[in-house]
Specification:
The complex is a heterodimer. By secondary structure, chain A is mainly beta. Chain A is 0% helix and 55% strand. Chain A is built from no helices and eleven strands. In chain A, β4 and β5 form a beta hairpin. Chain A is globular. In chain A, 34% of the residues are buried. By secondary structure, chain B is mainly beta. Chain B contains no helices and eleven strands. In chain B, the strands form two sheets. In chain B, strands 2, 4, 5, 6, 9, 10 and 11 form a seven-stranded mixed sheet that branches. The chains are: A mainly beta, B mainly beta. Chains A and B meet through β4, β5 and β10 of A and β5 and β10 of B.
Chain lengths: 110, 114
């Protein structure tokens, strides 16, 4: 079983819609969760971190964490074509190791 | 503030040769991490430095890989001798301190072993 699971996609949404990206993790003791955006051929860019249950909003992005369900999500409101990228979920486990999911490819269609 | 830098951006070497990758973290970041992404797979942890000390090297594939961080500044990752399965993109990331876990990635080095 992988430490972090993501649907590889592609997830296609029309411009202006809400994109919902999901991630599950296996280590129940994990405390820190991150979303990275990676454009093709580029390095991962940190867009959100979340540590507590609930929602955390930053501009058009909202990260949601449910530790009981071991589930993290990222919502992108008013999706733009420039949001088209691969979104990586990362988790820090209690032994301070970081695990990444394989990423979900998002396509925002104009 | 300059971001994480890595050198070279690309390297093509033959099996059996040696390659050294370099990472310069964000100034003041004590934590430095090396990761590798093999085609079609997820980014995998290799090792973690805190200043000049290896905090965790459990992800290093084998003893052909050697990482150093002289003086707690830049880090090098040497592969000797390189094998075909070492091909991939090697990322370096840094973070400020133990309580701050946000990691910032460098552009990566694409290594191709032929």
């Amino acid at each position: 079983q992988k430490e972090v699971e993501q649907n590889s996609g592609p997830l296609s949404v029309p411009e202006g819609a809400i994109a919902s990206l999901n991630c599950t993790y296996s280590d129940r003791g994990s405390q820190s969760f991150f979303w990275y955006r990676q454009y093709s051929g580029k390095s991962p860019e940190l867009i959100m971190s979340i540590y507590s249950n609930g929602d955390k909003e930053d501009g058009r992005f909202t990260a949601q964490l449910n530790k009981a369900s071991q589930y993290v999500s990222l919502l992108i409101r008013d999706s733009q074509p420039s949001d088209s990228a691969t979104y990586l979920c990362a988790v820090r486990t209690p032994d301070n190791k970081f695990y990444f999911g394989s990423g979900t490819k998002l396509n925002v269609k104009p | 503030e300059a971001g994480v830098t890595q050198f070279p951006s690309h390297s093509v070497i033959e099996k059996g040769q040696t390659v050294t990758l370099r990472c310069d973290p964000i100034s003041g970041h004590d934590n430095l991490y090396w990761y590798r992404r093999v085609m079609g797979k997820e980014i995998k942890f290799l090792l973690h430095f805190v200043k000049e000390s290896k905090q965790d090297e459990s992800g290093m594939p084998n003893n052909r890989f050697l990482a150093e961080r002289t003086g707690g500044t830049y880090s090098t990752l040497k592969v000797q001798p390189a094998e075909l399965e070492d091909s991939g993109v090697y990322f370096c990331a840094s973070s400020h301190g133990i309580l701050v876990h946000e990691q910032y990635f460098g552009p990566g080095t694409r290594l191709t072993v032929t």
